[in-house]
Amino acid sequence: MFIRRAFFYWQFPAAVILPAWILVGWGVFAATGWQIIGLIVGVMMLTVGMLATAGLIFARKDVRAERAVSWLDVALLTVLHGLIIAVGFFTPATALLGTLAVVAVIALFWSGIIQLVVETRRRVRTVLAGFEEQASRIQTPVQSARPPRADGEYIVIQASDRPAPPRV
Question: pLDDT, tens digit, for every residue of 34-51?
Fold first, then answer.
């Protein structure tokens, strides 16, 4: 539970800190100025992608209630964060690692959507089952055991078996 809870609190700061690490790392490990300028666009897109996936994870009620992400989220976030840290070292394998990071963000995004839909479907089914249970408990009104009051005249209208005449 501690690990899942740590990832819950880490995911929003990570959306800012890890892309900043890429910029700092590339500057330290001798990337050219043009590469860093091109990287700024990629880092902004990475930040938006990480914020979107964190928002999808946070949108699940179970995650908010437990203040902990699922184990699948932990696995995907670990892979993504590891890839982002590796990209920051600016090695010859950076292009491959960057591509894998994009794939990890897409996997995390779709995993978040699927988990959100599954959880929402389960909650809606639970609510509908509760409504059905309440509806089955509701019975037709019970006739009163008291005799009708006899304190005046009443008009009694009998329903006939004939259909009503058509209106013109």
Answer: 888 888 898 999 999 999
* Start-to-end C-alpha separation, the chain: 74
| Stated pTM of the model | 0.73
User: Rounded to whole angstroms, how far apart are CA atoms 55 and 112?
Assistant: 9
In the DSSP assignment, the letter for residue 30 is T
Cβ atoms of residues 21 and 83 within 8 Å: no
Q: What share of the chain is helix, strand, coil (3-state, %, to 5)?
A: 70, 0, 30
What is the token pair recorded at 130? 């509760």
Other residues' Cβ atoms within 10 Å of the Cβ of residue 165? 6
| Tokens matching residue 49 | 């992608």
